[in-house]
């Protein structure tokens, strides 16, 4: 008779170790940042609000809306919303500045832009702290945003003579309407390059965040004589002035497709030069692939700033026969993500925490994402990963309503927005496919994107499939980004309208060349790749 041996007791996964009790890093409260703004640029900041800049003067006016930091719900400065009539006056004043600035010698424009870059460098950490407080960037990402703006414009300063040779400034100022996620490396970078090329520049401060950071940068530029206009207000109220005014020489827009479509209609009707960067569902495809250690290493980078970037990859399309290997590579990597308050430390004098993501832009966006995830699961999506909130780094009792823990869903239903639109938050969706045709269809679900990547071992397979992926940039096993310096940038399909930018193309987009010149870009009458 066989002897029965007792089985080992079932094992259980140990509970995650909760983070230590944290405190706020010394000198990083909103009151600290605001006091430093008042000291550095008293012309632009008042006791509890910022001013608008137009007609070369800082001006009060407009109803200031309340605002809070997504980091912890702390009240911060809200945008002073101008009315449409005042915005029209600001545009006309910018045209006067433009007519004078376009005749300033290039050497002097270079000197003034260089002086602005030196000032931005001097106040780098304050600009970064404002980005943390206003839009929730982790410290590393915030400093990188400032550095990319400064370093990128210095590249243009060094090479501007060649880029403007045989070209002239536009007939009117450049109007910039940008999203809140990259106030420095996208918006301030563009403003300074546009001014370097001989144009006065107008910027609508983003409604959702970045107001104080952009105001400080604008104040530093205005001190050096850069013809910059900063106005705040609702897009609907200011669009007639900032998009439809005959004084405008070019409209530069970064944002969603719905708003972008309205801007595109307006500039097409008026024949205005335009650069319209719109959202697209950037995808990462995996087909006949085996270098899983390389993929594991890149996964945390794909969650930088909570995927709140135009070049984030929220969709992964996986060959079904590789799904088990994909999970073995993906799940351990996504479980390492560090989430929490970007300024919370164990001791007040500790260095800034190393985090992958903090909050999303506001509590409303967080609630929307949670609802979309819940709805997708109820309709059949399979949760592959949900981060444990107990491991996040928060201050005791802080407001966490704007935080979304990373989530990964398999086969989100077609009825879900997560299936066809960019979530702009830390939510990945995985789609399984069996054929190359299905792979391409899943990667092209949004009718055009800014970037894409295909991981495949065979270079010939990549060379054959990549041209069929509707993205401006397609990486081979590595992520693509917006790029700096001489790297070009644009989008295919509905993700981009108007002139492409990056490198010399950014200068060409905001200057006039030979008669009959066709700029590379997506236009109603033609599409021309660089």
TrEMBL record:
Keywords recorded for this protein, A-Z: Oxidoreductase
First and last residue of the signal peptide: none
InterPro entries (UniProt xref): Ald_DH/histidinol_DH (IPR016161), Ald_DH_C (IPR016163), Ald_DH_N (IPR016162), Aldehyde_DH_dom (IPR015590)
GO molecular function: oxidoreductase activity, acting on the aldehyde or oxo group of donors, NAD or NADP as acceptor
Highest taxon in the source lineage: Bacteria
Biased composition (Pro residues): 7-20
Domain Aldehyde dehydrogenase residues, every copy: 62-504
Region (Disordered): 1-20
Transmembrane segments: none
Full protein name: Aldehyde dehydrogenase
Lineage, broadest ranks: Bacteria, Bacillati, Actinomycetota, Actinomycetes, Kitasatosporales
